[in-house]
Design a protein that fits this description.
The protein is of the alpha/beta class. The protein has eight helices and 17 strands.
Length: about 300
């Protein structure tokens, strides 16, 4: 049924593949995003990527201060939507909006696991070997509505936040089109709240590496925040982002956080609370990303040098 009238709500990169996929199909489509705001180091006021894409695709765009206001409700009603889709929107749809039509959300986890704001990072932090995308009906309680569709995705050892985010956003776009082809073929299944887990927003303190932890835990932390914003440590009082690592087979030879050894043409190894970690890619403060090998060539690392604040 190609004439379903759709409203798509989004505000970040995760939503882009789904929006672009919808724009390629002949659904009547309206886009809702958030107003321009100060972004970047210079705090320049600019539109988010979804609003920019909507304009490039010549789609009607509505960016209210409050999506649940009377003015917003009237604007949305006038479009006469059959389905409202949200993806990384960052705003809650109130009861009056949810009563207008079917409201669904694209969430990058296998609900009821990892309800909340950071399911991609959390799946990596917790060392999951698989995750996925859920399409669920929106209700008052966060990420708790009945599931209409799910698709699983394996997490590879080389995946980090950037790669997994891209894969999940593309998967979300793909299963959304499948769902919209025939929503009735995907009946609502209530979530089992007893299995629910939750993830919270990332704080700056979550990014700092504690070398007293075991090597695998730190490796997972690095993957969860790479390449942006990046897990970080400190060397000689300056921040050093650690962007790629692997657990080493070398035995500990000193205190956690100390330099274990330099691996020729590869990088360097740091002692952890349990095990050792090979550093493969870094970004020194004020510098571009580089291989750990390139960093070693200019850093003049000292034997048993201590990393950390």
């Amino acid at each position: 049924m190609k004439n379903r009238r759709l409203i798509f709500c989004g505000a970040s990169e995760f939503a882009l593949p789904a929006l672009k996929a919808l724009a390629m199909v002949d659904y009547p489509l309206m886009v809702i995003s958030i107003p321009p705001k100060a972004m970047g180091r210079r705090l320049k006021v600019q539109e988010n990527v979804v609003a920019q894409a909507a304009k490039e695709l010549n789609l009607p765009l509505f960016c209210p201060e409050d999506v649940n206001s009377e003015e917003s409700l009237q604007e949305i009603r006038s479009f006469e939507p059959d389905i409202i889709i949200t993806a990384s929107f960052g705003a809650f749809l109130g009861k009056r909006l949810r009563e207008l039509c079917l409201c669904i959300n694209l969430h990058p986890s296998l609900l009821p696991l990892l309800r909340g704001a950071t399911p991609i990072q959390s799946s990596l932090l917790q060392g999951f070997d698989r995750t996925g995308v859920s399409i669920f009906e929106m209700v008052k309680k966060m990420d708790a509505g009945s599931i209409r569709m799910q698709k699983e995705l394996l997490i590879l050892d080389e995946d980090n936040y950037s790669s997994l985010h891209e894969k999940l956003s593309e998967l979300a776009a793909s299963i959304l089109l499948d769902f919209l082809d025939n929503p009735a073929s995907y009946p609502a299944i209530e979530q089992d709240d007893t299995r629910a887990t939750y993830c919270s927003k990332i704080d700056t303190s979550d990014l700092e590496i504690d070398w007293n932890q075991d090597a695998q835990t730190i490796c997972n932390q690095v993957r969860a925040f790479s390449t942006d914003p990046g897990a970080r440590t400190f060397r000689q009082g300056k921040m050093l982002k650690i962007l790629s690592t692997s657990v080493s087979n070398e035995a500990i030879n000193s205190e956690p956080g100390t330099l274990h050894s330099i691996v020729k043409n590869t990088g360097f190894i740091i002692n952890c609370g349990s095990g050792t970690l090979l550093i493969n890619q870094v970004q020194a403060q004020g510098k571009k990303q580089m291989s750990a090998h390139s960093y070693v060539l200019g850093a003049r690392l000292e034997p048993h040098e201590l990393f950390g604040s």
